[in-house]
From TrEMBL:
Species assigned in the record: Nesidiocoris tenuis
Annotated family: Belongs to the peptidase S8 family. Furin subfamily.
Location(s) in or outside the cell: Secreted
Name of the protein in its database record: Neuroendocrine convertase 2
Residues in the signal sequence: 1-21
UniProt-listed Enzyme Commission number(s): 3.4.21.94
Amino acid sequence: MGALVRGACLVLSLAAPFARSAEVFTNEFFVRLHGPGGRDSADAVAKRTGFDLVAPVLGSDHEFHFVHRGLSNARLKRSIAHTRRLKVDPMVHVAYQLPGFKRVKRGYKPLNVENLVPHIKVESDPTDPYFQYQWYLKNTGQNGGKAKLDLNVEAAWAQGVTGKNVTTAIMDDGVDYMHPDLKFNYNAKASYDFSSNDQYPYPRYTDDWFNSHGTRCAGEVAAARDNDICGVGVAYDSKIAGIRMLDQPYMTDLIEANSMGHEPNLIDIYSASWGPTDDGKTVDGPRNATMRAIVKGVNEGRNGLGNIYVWASGDGGEEDDCNCDGYAASMWTVSINSAINDGQNAHYDESCSSTLASTFSNGAKDPNTGVATTDLYGKCTTTHSGTSAAAPEAAGVFALALEANTQLNWRDIQHLTVLTSKRNSLFDAKRRFHWTMNGVGLEFNHLFGFGVLDAGAMVALAKQWKTVPARYHCEAGSIKGMQKISTEKSIFLKIKTTACQGSDTQVNYLEHVQAVITLNSTRRGDVELFLTSPMGTRSMILSKRANDNDHRDGFTKWPFMTTHTWGEYPQGVWTLEVSLNSKTPQSGYIKEWTLMLHGTSEAPYTDLPVSDPHSKLAIVKKAHEERNIVHVKGNYF
């Protein structure tokens, strides 16, 4: 059994309220009954009040999702009459109308579809006709790429690992489960359509094939091998489930929550290639029920080992920051960025300190050289792109790891990602962010996290892996009270901590670190935040966002997260630097900063054998054994 997450309730309370200007209300309602009445009682309430019962919320026996067919699914005012109708029912304890909000697919491109091509046989390689275009699986330098810059999946396959008995749910606009390259790897029992509330998550037809997104993602994970159709999936013997949940005018908290909590013991991995609008001015994340679903998934899913939630980091480019996306920046998710086939970051890649690793999206010389995968109606495409394409590749790699070791918990996957991802030849084309070494010798980059996933290395290490020690969280300190910030100079706030030494929640070896911050300014987009650890690792936890003109909402208890201090020792002085990067005078106030440390009390990796003395595992183990590391300070910018 995986170790339970300590302090989940505290972290839940840190979910910030979001700006709701021009709020939209749907025809969906949350209803909580007075007691555990079950579905029959809820159905009776629905019939008495003129509503339809959609489903329980996260399997609850007293919380339910209702809909009223007579109401518009998007209106600017709450329906007081319909809400009152529910509230006056003697069995109803709480009822409220659900607001709607936008969630966008990442990496959508206009229609560009190709027919199935003739069979092309490649010696010892998969015989699928599009395998030659799948440079992210085997990069031989095709299309101007850099040879051997790929996911190294052949090294995993050579170990006899292909994803058997692992299911990845594609949470998206549906999956063409009748596609000949997907139908034999489709897990119907684990699939559901939350947009139409039925068992058949088939994409809704549009002339421009807008709803091809989920089918393309599914093919990256589990397209079959050697069947003369399209290409091959990273984990071609694994299963995919379709969860259709993006295709309605507005998203609601209950649709998201039930999607992320659907069949958690049948689904191992949830892959999400969407999020809040990537416009460089939005600050948004999961609401209450959705956060509950994710936390429940990592604590209880996979029969206690924890579900793995893979998230695309975002397509807002250098004008956005994925730490403003509460899904990608969550500790419970694995945030994946992308690189192109010569090692550069893609122009749409967002940077942030919460990104754990990277996979691939576009070609460098030919922008149409994207990811080759399945498309709607039995077709294939070579133009899937964006961090949308990156996240399912990561899900496929994780599926390989889960076959290699069925006892891996959700945190084991994150540790394996940190230890086996490679710098390879990834680089920032604009030379803003360099590779830097943290206090225990782990190399990271603000764009790429700990590097590109290496399926062969992850599978090899997974086979000998020992579950990491129990995870604790420590509220390490807090600074409260208004402190002015301006463009004239940065301010530095310091918290000295023992990391809860001597208590039941002592943290000695870091995983995630959060700076939970409340501030406002005359222009939110000019705020920059840096967090420096006691071992000298400096993380940019918020960058300038040129499009963010907010002067009212600011940040309210927003949990900025960094993975850059992974494995470090947290005791000592942490420094938060707050500045306003603007050519015109701006000002503001930071009202509160709370430092949250997450990690283990016991040293991880102690029981793992080291075969390569130069590996990340060997470096970190030696650092932990000595505990007197001299920090090699890299040039961050």
